[in-house]
Design a protein that fits this description.
3-stranded parallel β-sheet; 143 residues; 13% strand; elongated
């Protein structure tokens, strides 16, 4: 096998349509564009979603939903992931050092998910009610 002899399998690819090559080609004169209108002209263009001056669909529909700007700076942490930190007092810097939260995180909230095996002391981290009960049941503290 040589690179200069490689060809597609017979019938797998079609020849390109050549527009504007006479009446016998089937694509002569107007080249498949029709007779009149914006799309028949060179440079005929309209933006995506344009409906000929009618109010476009994306503007007719009501706006719904909300994206909080705080959400990208808030991280969530499961209760059993606190066991991966090997420090006495667990704060935001300790969680970032252990790669449990992203470096852009400013706030962390601990959720009651999984079992906590060791006593932890949290500082500057918010917790849910269930997580607070679980941490305090093992003798941990939350500041």
């Amino acid at each position: 096998m040589r690179l200069n002899t490689l060809r597609p399998a017979p019938g797998s690819s079609c020849n390109k349509r050549r527009a504007g090559r006479g009446i016998g080609s089937g694509r002569g004169k107007t080249c498949g564009r029709g007779h009149k209108g914006q799309c028949s002209r060179s440079g005929g263009y309209h933006k995506v979603g344009f409906e000929g001056g009618q109010m476009p669909l994306q503007r007719r529909l009501p706006k719904i939903g909300f994206h909080s700007s705080k959400s990208k700076h808030t991280a969530q942490l499961r209760l059993h992931e606190l066991a991966k930190v090997d420090q006495e007092v667990i704060d935001l810097a300790a969680l970032k050092a252990a790669n449990l939260v992203p470096t852009v995180a400013r706030n962390v909230k601990v959720f009651d998910s999984g079992k906590l095996e060791k006593t932890v002391n949290l500082k500057g981290i918010s917790v849910t009610k269930g997580a607070r009960v679980a941490i305090e049941a093992l003798g941990g503290t939350i500041n």
